[in-house]
Amino acid sequence: MPAQQPTLDGTLPVPAPDYHTWVDQVRPAFVAAARTGRLFTSYEIAKTNDLPEPPNPRADWGNLVLSLVRDQVIEHVAFDRSSRPTGERSAVAVWRGTRAAQAGRVA
After folding, report:
1. Is it the case that residue 79 has pLDDT exceeding 90?
2. What stretches of 1-107 adopt beta strand conformation (E)?
3. Distance between terminal CA atoms of the chain?
4. Is residue 95 part of a domain?
5. pTM of the entire structure?
6. Hey, which end of the chain has fewer CB within 10 Å, N or C?
7. Residues 43-51: contacts with CB within 8 Å, 24+ apart?
């Protein structure tokens, strides 16, 4: 078993969940946002709902959003500037729930 570095307060860090466990934790917040019909970015949903970071943040946020598109929960609307502090105002996708999501026909 590999050694684990304790945090500054002496506790051991909680290991990150695997991708599928993480998706199960965060997907309901995105489905709820899709049902409202309002425009959003993935960062706004993560920040508003205090969602945990995924195991691989560089890839997993995009994978989650693409799975929501494939499942017809959300659709791409536009691009905007990122409000993420580390995003350097780069372009990000803006999403909206599909009509089916707004009607509560998808989960």
Report:
1. yes
2. 74-81, 91-97
3. 39
4. yes
5. 0.83
6. N
7. 43/82, 43/83, 43/84, 43/87, 43/92, 44/83, 51/25, 51/26
